[in-house]
Amino acid sequence: MKKTVFLLALWLVSLAAFAQSNLRGTVKSSTGEELVGANVILVGTGRGSTSDLEGNFQIRNIPAGTYTLRVTYLGFESYTKEIQVPTDEFLDIALTPSTLLTEEFIVYATRATDKTPTTFSKVDKSDIAKLNLGQDLPILLNFTPSVVSFSDAGAGVGYTGLRIRGSDQTRINVTVNGIPLNDAESHGVFWVNMPDFASSVDNLQIQRGVGTSTNGAATFGASLNIQTDTRQDEAFAEIDNSFGSFNTRRHMVKVGTGLLNNRWAFDARVSQITSDGYIDRASSDLRSYFLSGGFYGEKHVVKMNVFAGKEVTYQAWEGVPENLLATNRTFNPYTYDNQVDNYNQDHFQLIYTGTLNQNWKANAALHYTYGRGYFEQFRPNDRLNSYGLQPLEIGGITISRMDIIRRRWLDNDFYGAVFSLNYISDDGKWDAAFGGGANRYDGDHFGEIIWMQYAGDVNIRDRYYDNNAVKDDYNLYAKTTYAASEKLYLFGDLQYRKIDYSFVGFNNDQRDISGAVNYNFFNPKFGFTYQASEGKSWYASYAVANREPVRRDFTDSPIVDRAPKHENLQNIEAGFKGRGSNFSYTANLYYMKYKDQLVLTGQLNDVGAYVRDNVEDSYRLGIELDGVYQFTPKFSLGGNLALSRNKIAEFIEYIDDYAAADFRQETIIHTDTDIAFSPSVVGAAIVEYKPVKDFEISLLNKYVGSQFLDNTQNESRKLDAFWTTDLRLNYAVRPRFVKNMELTLMVNNIFNRLYEPNGYTFSYFLPGEGASGRELVTENFYYPQAGTNFLAGVKFLF
């Protein structure tokens, strides 16, 4: 009986196994090009696959029956076929291009192509998705060439930033669908105002150096050109949840209608991110949404994007004093329970792109951004005269200092239009673009006292400072690529930019800052690309950029007496690109020569605020290497390395002297010193291994060389070099109740390295012993990043 039962069970198992079949095939375009990443699903079963690098796909363990197979790929018509399983047929599927216009041209005019002689990298949605567990975009770009990213709270949530080639966020131009994102006054990008924005990014391009002409702030180190989600032909839903160290939580829901009536599509996303932060009390409460809807015709697309962010972030701006790094790396000097930054930002974009005729395409967009919010501060024993208030007389005692809680507000509007026209000649030799934009920023800056230790002659909404700034920014550019031969492409790019900037009112130090400045900039660029053979090309270019000073350069320096000069950059780029069946690589040299670069020197203005000054000559010189090699279908190695020399010819340091009978500043002249925050070595290496289908193990390594906190090249004012390693596990399964389920585990800094990628310093003289009767005191502050920590997420696709 036991043998009979065993044989019967074995027969049933073998029968079930026999009834499970595999479906194999390949997906190509109608011209025979393999399509990588095409979605292949059996409708209504939750079973599916995606095509690999050769366009092949396989769906395993399919029960016998009749199914509807559907294949989709962006820019192509969807394919459906009824199939009978089991089958021995190898499906050779050819997709035909969609008759609907795609959205690529929205960013075409401001992007580089393979024929453009500049240095750039592209990051796709799939690359972002592997890392996206709620951290801001600068952290997700950490492993791209020449990038150093950091976080005030130490865990990648809240205030984050990045530098590229040593240039900070104020020198990196950022556009979203060709629309400027940089703050018009500070030139910065505050990613905290756009929580989980990475979940709505389709792709982005990073151009290093001056790059090609774009809209908005001048490109002085790099540009970041972002395109948001594009149309999906099939209806979808996505639920994404993650959690991790420091009580970090992320919840995201995303839905889309797919293409309705072959013309309309609508998408929506809502997100919430919370975190306690690595630094004490550096908490974040972040919320955002992204709405998009559009009409998609054969020749025209009209699309509306509305996205917004709301952030409440406890301040961790002060950093950790050097003397506490060894004993209390999470120190935060702030203890007041509402020491927060509280800000809202709403974005509206109306975009048109269309084909006018066989040779011409057009793109235009109207945009409006509304920002408002404040940061609140508890100020112990603060001076009343700092707020324009007279001392109080209470009980015969004169009180000139007391505890105060204040709010500093920013309420601004940014609006305008951008456009581009693209011409391609009938013979394909000319590819030209003409474009530009006109934008206005109108910002109110004001401060309020919301509480005082003792009642004074002030009401809750009285403003102790109030000023307004209006900035108009216009630009026009014309760029073209000409095929001089089958292998040689010539490139030219001319841009004119005009800026009118005016101020009126009083600053927070009670000074009248009224004034106006105007700039007219001409930025030429030209170069060539030589395609030596299939997959190999050389390029070289020369570009000029001019950049106006930021708001603080004007408000801290009297415009009439000491207006700062604008900055000038001349950039030479030259490189080589190659690719084969299982590898790709790039190598490039760059030289960036600055004139009148603005830097902090320690010099004070008439009310004791530190100002930036122009240094006449400085430069960056470097080489960047980037590549990936696919050893086997399961194992690949990729990485990048940047080696550079970053120098200031002459730098004058101003040091406060409190040892003197009358306060003064001493000057020290430094020559041939390193530019601050410019490591000579930055590298990354990513090892990926796929032991089984749909399971990927990745080791992500990052090395950043030592960098100085100021321009004196003083060894006592330095950030040490660091090497970190992250472990990432990605696993995709396809249960019957969803189209796809993805599990991700990210263990950051697995070797628990103690490192600080950002900080600041200042020095002063105090009375002391010795012949000089004084001693030099240097205070360094650092932003430590978290040790070993984790983030885990689960994503459901419907």
TrEMBL record:
Span of domain TonB-dependent receptor plug: 114-221
InterPro entries in UniProt: Beta-barrel_TonB, Beta-barrel_TonB_sf, CarboxyPept-like_regulatory, Plug_dom, Plug_dom_sf, TonB-dep_rcpt-like
Name assigned to this protein: TonB-dependent receptor
SUPFAM superfamilies, alphabetized: Carboxypeptidase regulatory domain-like, Porins
Residue ranges constituting the TonB-dependent receptor-like beta-barrel domain according to the UniProt record: 328-750
Source taxon at top rank: Bacteria
Family: Belongs to the TonB-dependent receptor family.
Classification via PANTHER family: FERRICHROME IRON RECEPTOR-RELATED, FERRICHROME OUTER MEMBRANE TRANSPORTER_PHAGE RECEPTOR
